[in-house]
Amino acid sequence: MVATALTIAGSDSGGGAGIQADLKTFSALGVYGASVITAITAQNTCAVTDVHPVPNATVAAQIAAVLGDIRVDCIKIGMLGDAALIETVARALEAYRGPIVLDPVMVAKSGARLLPDAARAALIAHLLPRADLLTPNLPEAAALLGCAEAQDDAEMQRQGARLREMGAGAVLMKGGHAQGATCTDWLIAGDATRLDAPRIATRNTHGTGCTLSSAVAAGLAKGQTLAQAVEAAHGWLHSAILAADTLEIGQGHGPVHHFHEVWT
Predict the structure, then answer these.
(1) Of 4, 7, 38, 205, which is the active-site residue?
(2) 68 given a catalytic annotation
(3) Catalytic residue among 174, 183, 184, 219
(4) Would residue 208 show up in a list of annotated catalytic residues for this protein?
(5) Which residue among 34, 136, 190, 214 is least packed, with the fewest CB closer than 10 Å?
(6) Choosing from 25, 88, 135, 208, which is the catalytic residue?
(7) Which of these CATH numbers, 1.25.40.340, 3.40.190.10, 3.40.1190.20, 2.60.40.290, describes 4-133+203-246?
(8) Is 169 one of the catalytic residues?
(9) How far apart are CA 233 and CA 61, in angstroms?
(10) Active-site residue, selected from the candidate residues 15, 45, 160, 210
(11) pLDDT digit string (tens) for 116-148?
(12) Cβ count near 198 (within 10 Å)
């Protein structure tokens, strides 16, 4: 029986992030993907020029339709537009008992704000406690905690531990926004596990956060432990970034190559 995963996220018209990146990731990793669209964005590799939220009732109906028919082994949650939608999603998932990966999408690669500051409290109250894994980058972790961005490994670990104390089952602190020749992520789950990769000199990193969280969700859907899923996703994303320049998509921050193991 094929593993299945559901993504609840916004649509990226440029195809590099959001729902499109999630479904590409699921497919590339051998997982059947279903989707719930929370917003329609006018977006390309350079900018987000418009965001049209899907009505909350329609989001809830999509979730009910999928969960009412399809066995879902893992859920990944991405872009949620406001506090009311966050509460809607939380209510719609009350009966779901599988693992949930929460990617707190707040700022696009272009710098556009994707989650109002007022929705931060709702995310913390209603979805953080449901997350088996929270996957913030450094700006997102700082926004959730109301503090400055972590500047070193020790502070990344401390912030991850604080986010666990706020309710997340585990936290993957992503170091892509840091500096240096090595990109370091920290999985905070009882203990702290360091994941290093050489930093790749490329501007084609659009959708890396969506892709990484979806890759972890795919691993969990296939029955991997959290540590196994995170390690496998980390290595797979590194290869997808290495192959990104071969795609030559757009004039800004292009996407990673989700199908680097299938075609070049």
Answers:
(1) 205
(2) no
(3) 174
(4) yes
(5) 190
(6) 208
(7) 3.40.1190.20
(8) no
(9) 30
(10) 210
(11) 878 999 999 999 999 999 999 998 999 899 999
(12) 10
